[in-house]
């Protein structure tokens, strides 16, 4: 089966032991042993550069050796049709050519939430009630790209972005955590179609792996597609205008202007931008754009409320939320206080304030989320947050 690749790179740091060598040991030496290096989840992130991991340790003009680049590859199951990747779908497939079924691999970070949030987001898409932490811990365990994950199998009425519920559907997927990011592989479709393709789904999920750029080029020559160039450009890269002006710019088709005095963190592949208000130490504001509804407005409102220790709201309460304009459309506005816990990003703030805004834009969804100590997010920062939201446009 042919191996396929998409724009997805991982820069690996080489860890070499120090040695003391005599003059007799000088010159080339053959390496006769290999060792596996264990990297605990949460210590590194996919796509991180050396500067992301260690900070800048060289003069601005010092040359740095290029780290080896890797790309995502997999094996296509028989009869599956490969579709063009999207911003959030690194691998995008149609099982057995069935237009009612879809399977994709994606990576989500930023406000993605932890394992509990993501499992319950999928359950919400299938019309199922949420699980508690013990329920998620009891789910079957599966590996995804060498990471510990859980297998989720659901049956019910599937609701996709902006569409009507589809009855008799099944969702089969695996979720694994990797530092700040979550990895997902997900198959949805009519129950009979998913049952027929369950073994192929497992084979596809197991085949996902990272290889050195160019290692699978021979498999891609027939389509003339330059995956290495795609990997170099990468979805989520910042435009030149944005890089030149930290207080504003465009990324992923979204433009913004940050309030005066705000600063901008280095870009992350899954965020449009990460900004910080002045005179704060723990407060951050993340702008995220997804090429889907991310589970819908209500499920994301409930997810954010759960991160700050609050329960879900009713449909009527959702309708009563304040509104804010994002990219010319009316979205919902949240202003919450409580104990903030974000396991995906390893942030814990006992007395926190969360300002959040989200909107569906037809073909995608947009989220703006500020979290930090309640003492740092005062009314001045709140007004600046609304100013940022009002500046967003496509």
Give a verbal description of the structure:
By secondary structure, this protein is of the alpha+beta class. It has 2 domains: 71-231, Protein Transport Mog1p, Chain A (3-Layer(aba) Sandwich); 240-391, Mog1/PsbP, alpha/beta/alpha sandwich (Protein Transport Mog1p, Chain A). The chain has helices at 50-54, 115-125, 133-137, 191-207, 217-220, 227-233, 240-244, 297-307, 315-319, 379-391; strands at 3-9, 70-75, 81-82, 89-94, 102-108, 141-144, 147-158, 166-178, 181-190, 209-212, 248-251, 254-257, 263-264, 273-276, 284-290, 323-326, 329-342, 347-360, 365-373. The strands form 4 sheets. A 7-stranded antiparallel sheet has the order 3-4-5-9-8-7-6. Strands 13-14-15-19-18-17-16 form a 7-stranded antiparallel sheet, with helices on both faces. Strands 1-2-10 form a 3-stranded antiparallel sheet. α2 runs antiparallel to α8 (297-307). The radius of gyration is 22 Å and the shape is globular. The chain starts with a strand and ends with a helix. Mean pLDDT is 75; it is low at 1-29, 31-45, 47-64 and 216-246.
List segments where confidence is low: pLDDT < 50 over at least 5 consecutive residues.
Answer: 1-29, 31-45, 47-64, 216-246
CATH architecture assignment of the largest domain: 3-Layer(aba) Sandwich
Number of strands: 19
Average pLDDT works out at 75
H/E element sequence:
EHEEEEHHEEEEHEHHHEEEEEHHEEEEH
- Strands of the widest sheet, in order across it, are 3-4-5-9-8-7-6
Number of domains: 2
Describe the sheet with the most strands: 7 strands, antiparallel
Q: DSSP helix count?
A: 10
Instruction: Examine the coordinates and then state which fold CATH places here, giving the name of the CATH topology of the largest domain.
Output: Protein Transport Mog1p, Chain A
Oligomer: single chain
**Helix/strand class:** alpha+beta
- The Rg value, from CA coordinates, equals 22 Å
- Helical content, roughly? 10-25%
Using the alpha-carbon principal axes, give the shape. globular
Strand content: 25-35%
Ends apart, CA distance between termini: 40 Å
User: Which CATH top level class of the largest domain fits?
Assistant: Alpha Beta
